[in-house]
C-alpha cells in the first residue's frame, strides 16, 4: 500500500508542479504592435529568454491596432492563468486610454509582472531637411509654420505624444501623421515622406545615413549614438512624462505565485549577456523591477501623461 501511495505521489508531482506554476501549455506573448516595431523586437528577445527559463514555449503574437489598445484589451480579457502576457509599451497603458475608449482600465485590468527597461529614442530628421541640430530644427519649423510633419506608430503612441511635446516646447506647429506601426513610419522618414520622427526604431536608418539624429531622449546619452546630445542638454524634456519603458503585464487576478515566478525568471534573464546586449541594440537600458515597483511606475506615468495630453489639447 505504501509503495502504491509513493508511486502515485511521484507520478502526480510533475503535474502538480505544472499546475501550481500555471505553465502546462504554451504562453501567448502579445505584442500590441506590428512586426518590426521596437515592441515586437523586445517581445521576441524576451519571449525566447523567458521560455528557456520556464521550460515552455512562449509564442509571440502581434495584435496591433488603436495605439496598442487592441492587444492590451485581448490580454485584459484573457483568463488570469499566466498563459497570456502583454508586452506593454508605456504608450498603450499611459497614453491610449486617455484618448479613446479602449475597453480596459490600465490601472485595474492588469497585474504588473516585470520591466524590460527604459528605452532611448532619437529625434531624427530626413537628411534632405536642412538642419543638423535640434535648435536648427526648431528654428526651421518656426520659419515654416505648419509645413513640417512628424510620423509615429499611431495615435496614442509615445512618438505621437513626444512629437506634440517637442512642437509645444519649441513653439512651432507640426502635423502628426500616424502610421500602422513604427517601422512603416521610419521607412516614410527615410523616403522623405515624413520630416521628423521620435522613436528608437529610426536607429538603423540613422546608421545607414537614411536619417539624421539631432537629439536623443532617455537617461543621458545613448551609448550607441554618444555624439548625439540628449534633448535635456538643450533645456527641453525635463518635465515630459516618461513614455519610453517596456513592461510585462498579465491579466488582473493572476495568482501572486505565478506573477512572482515569471518576475523571477524574467529578471534573471536580464542578467544574461546575450539578452542584455540585444535589448541595448534596440535602445533599452535593462531594468529589474518588482511587480509592485512596476505598478507604482505605471500609476505615476498614467497620471502625468493625462495631464500633458489635456494641456496639449490632445485628450
Sum this structure up briefly.
This protein is of the alpha/beta class and 315 residues long. The protein folds into 2 domains: 2-118 and 245-311, Bordetella uptake gene, domain 1 (D-Maltodextrin-Binding Protein, domain 2); 121-234, Periplasmic binding protein-like II (D-Maltodextrin-Binding Protein, domain 2, 3-Layer(aba) Sandwich), CATH 3.40.190.
Task: Please render the helix and strand layout as text.
Layout: H1 2-21, E1 27-31, H2 38-54, E2 58-62, H3 69-76, E3 84-89, H4 90-94, H5 96-99, E4 110-119, E5 121-125, H6 134-143, E6 149-152, H7 158-170, E7 175-178, H8 182-191, E8 196-199, H9 203-207, E9 212-217, E10 245-251, H10 256-269, H11 273-281, E11 284-286, H12 291-311
Parallel strand pairs: 1-2, 1-3, 6-7, 6-8
Antiparallel strand pairs: 3-10, 4-10, 4-11, 5-8, 5-9
Helix pairs in contact: 2-10
Amino acid at each position: 500500500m505504501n509503495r502504491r501511495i509513493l508511486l502515485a505521489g511521484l507520478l502526480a508531482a510533475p503535474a502538480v508542479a505544472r499546475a501550481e506554476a500555471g505553465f502546462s501549455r504554451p504562453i501567448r506573448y502579445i505584442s500590441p504592435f506590428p512586426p518590426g516595431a521596437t515592441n515586437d523586437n523586445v517581445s521576441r528577445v524576451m519571449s525566447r529568454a523567458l521560455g528557456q527559463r520556464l521550460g515552455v514555449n512562449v509564442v509571440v503574437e502581434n495584435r496591433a491596432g488603436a495605439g496598442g489598445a487592441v492587444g492590451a484589451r485581448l490580454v485584459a480579457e484573457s483568463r488570469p492563468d499566466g498563459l497570456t502576457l502583454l508586452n506593454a509599451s508605456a504608450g498603450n497603458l499611459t497614453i491610449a486610454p486617455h484618448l479613446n475608449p479602449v475597453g480596459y482600465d490600465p490601472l485595474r485590468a492588469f497585474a504588473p509582472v516585470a520591466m524590460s527597461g527604459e528605452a532611448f529614442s532619437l529625434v531624427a530628421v530626413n537628411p534632405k531637411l536642412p538642419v543638423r541640430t535640434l535648435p536648427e530644427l526648431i528654428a526651421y519649423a518656426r520659419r515654416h509654420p505648419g509645413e513640417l510633419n512628424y510620423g509615429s506608430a499611431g495615435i496614442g503612441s509615445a512618438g505621437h505624444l513626444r512629437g506634440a511635446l517637442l512642437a509645444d516646447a519649441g513653439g512651432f506647429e507640426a502635423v502628426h501623421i500616424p502610421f500602422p506601426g513604427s517601422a512603416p513610419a521610419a521607412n516614410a522618414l527615410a523616403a522623405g515622406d515624413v520630416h521628423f520622427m521620435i522613436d528608437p526604431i529610426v536607429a538603423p536608418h540613422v546608421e545607414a545615413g537614411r536619417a539624421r539624429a539631432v537629439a536623443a531622449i532617455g537617461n543621458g546619452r545613448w551609448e550607441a549614438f554618444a555624439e548625439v546630445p540628449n534633448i535635456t542638454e538643450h533645456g527641453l524634456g525635463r518635465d515630459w512624462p516618461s513614455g519610453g519603458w517596456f513592461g510585462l503585464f498579465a491579466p488582473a487576478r493572476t495568482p501572486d505565485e505565478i506573477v512572482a515566478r515569471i518576475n523571477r525568471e524574467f529578471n534573471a534573464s536580464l542578467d544574461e549577456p546575450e539578452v542584455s546586449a540585444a535589448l541595448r541594440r534596440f535602445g533599452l537600458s535593462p531594468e529589474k523591477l518588482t511587480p509592485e515597483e512596476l505598478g507604482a511606475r505605471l500609476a505615476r506615468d498614467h497620471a502625468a501623461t493625462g495631464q500633458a495630453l489635456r494641456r496639449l489639447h490632445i485628450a
